[in-house]
Design brief:
There is one protein chain. It is built from 22 helices and 4 strands. By secondary structure, it is mainly alpha-helical. GO terms for molecular function: L-glutamate transmembrane transporter activity; L-lysine transmembrane transporter activity.
Length: 604
């Protein structure tokens, strides 16, 4: 592997210069053009190996971590994680999307939309927490999926994870500009520059959002603990502002504004739920900080679950307050709370609301910057992305390269793209990933190589196929049928019976060592169903964008990522250490010698 090969103990020998070819493509397949052509010819074999290979907990915790050369500093407690969670989640979603969804899709019933998306988010929090405690690494859901569902699924999820963070940060940065404008007595879009030659939705340029991303980048690369202190000081101020909005806003409540309660019906409530899931995004960033947590088994459950409970209650109270202050038809979609206080004659409160919103969105950007860099770092440790992104600075203990690149991409998207386009595309990526994490948790609990019998493996695969299939059918029927009900009579019982069968007929192969999701398989199965159902409420144009992005990911994977991670696994001896296969792959290839969980090295 040359100077970037894997040496003894899993360390990577790196050159001092960070701008050489070996920092980006050090693998054997890219040493020469002839090597690359040979690798391309082996694509089917290599794809089979990576698709049917599962990593190990120990590999993620030791060998993969060692690729960064330096350890991240363990400085975070449950207090830090809880405030990171609050800071990561409460931001643009509640301060901007509440008004948009209340006015256009849900009316005052937007509070129910927050309840539905909050339940889905809480189920996902449980799944993330168990994984983060058991595999406390910076890779978050990428590492969890790599261990349970294999490299190929993990890469597809990884690409969408990175998209989620870039788009989420861009959406928040755009919202930051809107509230900054209202703070200075301007209309929300006054500071945007209209570019007449660009397509609608991409023609209002936002230079302030770019500047905000640059400032956040400086904080994120300097220190994780310093970012934590800044975050919870800002978040405490933010919580005080939220309490002010709720208490002061309810003194101006008019219950006539709650009639009609659900003008767009149940369909509007669920459509809003799918979009408002954006408001809960951020807690997964906290799971990426597990590697920097002092006592993961204690701190992660308190930090993640505690922050999500506080966030859900705050969202519901804020949604109720907004819709009691103004008729839903008069809510401003850009700065709803500021304009609502102006409408009831409290112009001075506009400044408090705008300042609180700015602080909230600043912490969302900060925590997002910290989380997205750690995702990219762990992905690059496996060489699915160039290993240059995996470098951890020896002085600050932070992944500087990954942080700068991710925030640069965020700034570019924020400069051009309208908020509603960002929000719906973001929700698709997030719901898709959260669904995969729930599937991975069921695989983790019910399958262990050498423990699970072939018969139990097939039963597990059948149950998972029915759970996912019935959830997809329910979501599809919801999307295509305006008033029908017959389809639900078929699909919902299939989901219920398949989950019951998993509980009754497939024995647990592994119990959590430190902290576990309660009521398995019911809660993970419900998470799968709700996430897929909410996906069915998102518009078709967003799915087209999602499809184009996934297609671009596959092109990159087949040309570069597949060969890089295959070479890295081969050099590290992982091809002989990993658990090969997956539950679905075992069913699709019943004649595979050795079956799931045995060593099948296709290169021999």
């Amino acid at each position: 592997m040359g100077s970037s090969g894997v040496a003894g103990g899993g360390m990577v020998k790196r050159r001092g210069c960070s701008c050489t070819k070996d920092d980006f493509l050090p693998e054997e397949s890219f040493k020469s053009f002839g090597n690359y052509l040979s690798a391309l010819r082996e694509t089917p074999m290599r794809l089979r190996d990576r698709a049917l290979s599962r990593s190990l907990d120990s590999t993620e915790l030791h060998e993969v971590k060692a690729q960064s050369q330096h350890e991240m500093k363990k400085t975070l407690s449950w207090w830090d994680l809880m405030w990171f969670g609050i800071g990561a989640v409460i931001g643009a979603g509640i301060f901007v999307l509440t008004g948009l969804e209340a006015k256009e899709h849900a009316g005052p019933a937007v509070v129910l939309s927050y309840v539905v998306s909050g339940v889905s988010a809480m189920l996902s929090v449980f799944c993330y927490t168990e994984f983060a405690v058991e595999i406390p690494v910076a890779g978050g859901s990428f590492a969890y999926l790599r261990v349970e569902l294999g490299d190929f699924v993990a890469f597809i999820a990884a690409g969408n994870i990175l998209l989620e963070y870039v788009i989420g940060g861009a959406a928040v940065a755009r919202s930051w500009t809107s509230y900054f404008a209202t703070l200075l007595n301007h209309k929300p879009d006054d500071f945007l520059i209209k570019a007449h030659g660009l397509t609608e939705g991409y023609n209002k340029l936002d230079p302030i959002a770019v500047g905000v991303c640059g400032i956040i980048c400086l904080f994120a690369v300097l220190s994780t603990k310093g970012s934590s202190r800044l975050n919870y000081i800002a978040s405490i101020i933010h919580v005080v502002v939220i309490l002010f909005i709720i208490i002061a806003g309810l003194t101006k409540a008019d219950f006539n504004n709650y009639t009609p309660f659900a003008p767009f019906g149940a369909r509007g409530v669920f459509k809003s739920s799918a979009v408002l899931f954006f408001a809960y995004i951020g807690f997964d960033a906290v799971s990426t900080m597990a590697e920097e947590t002092k006592a993961p088994a204690r701190d992660i459950p308190i930090g993640l679950v505690g922050s999500m409970v506080i966030t859900t209650v705050a969202y519901c109270l804020l949604a109720v307050t907004l819709c009691l202050m103004q008729p839903y038809t008069k809510i401003d979609i850009n700065a709803p709370f500021s304009v609502a206080f102006q409408a009831v004659g409290w112009d001075w409160a506009n400044y408090i609301v705008a300042a609180g919103a700015l602080k909230g969105m600043t912490t969302v950007l900060l925590v997002g910057a910290v989380g997205q860099a750690r995702y990219m770092t762990h992905i690059a440790r496996t060489h699915m992305l160039p290993p240059w992104f995996a470098k951890v600075d020896s002085r600050t203990g932070t992944p500087v390269n990954a942080t700068v690149v991710m925030l640069a991409a965020t700034a570019v998207i924020a400069f051009f793209t309208k908020l509603d386009i960002l929000a719906e595309l973001l929700s698709i990526s997030t719901l898709f990933i959260f669904m995969l994490v729930a599937v991975a948790l069921l695989v983790r609990r019910y399958y262990v190589a050498g423990v699970t019998t072939p018969a139990d493996r097939l039963k597990l695969a059948a149950c998972l196929a029915l759970i996912i299939g019935s959830s997809v059918a329910t979501a599809t029927y919801w999307g295509l049928s305006e008033n029908g009900w017959v389809g639900y009579v078929i699909t919902v019982p299939i989901w219920l019976l398949s989950t019951l069968a998993l509980w009754a007929f497939v024995p647990h192969a592994r119990d959590p060592k430190l902290w576990g999701v309660p009521l398995v398989p019911w809660l993970p199965s419900a998470s799968i169903a709700i996430n897929i159902f909410l996906l069915g409420s998102i518009d078709g144009a967003s799915f087209k964008r999602f499809g184009l992005w996934t297609g671009a990911l596959l092109i990159y994977y087949f040309l570069f990522g597949l060969h890089a991670c295959y070479d890295t696994a081969k050099a590290a001896g992982e091809l002989k250490k990993v658990e090969e296969g997956n539950v679905v792959g075992a069913v699709a290839n019943p004649g595979l010698k050795g079956g799931y969980g045995t060593t099948v090295n296709p290169s021999t």
